[in-house]
Amino acid sequence: MKVFKASLATCILILVLASMLFAVEIKGVRFAEQLPVESIELHLTGVAVLKWAMLFDVYAGAFYLPAGHNPAAWAADVAKRLELSYFREIAGQGFADASIKLLRESLAADDYAAIKERLFTFCALFRDVRPGDRYSITYRPGIGTELRLNDRILGAAPGADFATAYFGIWLGDQPISARFRDRLLDNGRD
Asked: 47 in helix, strand or coil?
């Protein structure tokens, strides 16, 4: 009986801790309030849902920065993470094509040329996604920008300049959606 009670108490503790870790929910998708990235604790700055043509939900996203870091200074050389949980099937080539097109259009020619080779290598990492799949893009200073699908590492690209450009797709001056960007950066909850 003691073993059963101890096991039950352990299960309850695990459930309580898990619910604390995944404290924010948007459109049925849960995101952690905090995430460890090696020895750095990242904190949620905001969540949002990206809509296509103002009609269809494409994905829910969450953005993380170190505690106390001003979200308006997201481009600084600090650890950061963007998580995107998909509601629809999307082909990996679609991610690659969209990333290249958006960056070619939004970056100055010299800036695009400086990251072009790394961008093509990074874009080759993308895989098809189904509803419920989650990409995470994590930048670690001195290491680079890492891409994971469902928490499985696919690869990385070096350089703070690459991170600033790539995260800029969602967070920059010409983002994929200004509403999505603003909600990620201002503690937004759709």
From this structure: strand
Residue that the structure tokens 């400086």 belong to: 114
Distance, CA of 80 to CA of 74 (rounded, Å): 8
Cα 155 from Cα 138, distance rounded (Å): 11
Using CA atoms, how far residue 31 sits from 21, 43, 72, 120, in Å, is: 8, 11, 21, 29
- Please check whether residue 147 is in contact with residue 122, taking contact to mean a CB–CB distance below 8 angstroms: yes
Question: What is residue 107's three-state secondary structure?
Answer: coil
Helices 160-171/109-123 angle, 10° precision: 90
- 63-107 confidence digits (pLDDT tens): 999 999 999 999 999 999 999 999 999 999 999 999 999 999 999
Q: How far apart are CA 121 and CA 129, in angstroms?
A: 19
CA dihedral 149, 153, 157, 163 (to 10 degrees): 50
Cβ atoms < 10 Å from Cβ of 27: 13
pTM of the model: 0.85
What tokens appear for 41 in the block?
């604790």
| Pick from 163, 150, 84: nearest CA to 119 | 163
**What is the tens place of the pLDDT at every residue in 112-134?**
999 999 999 999 999 999 999 99
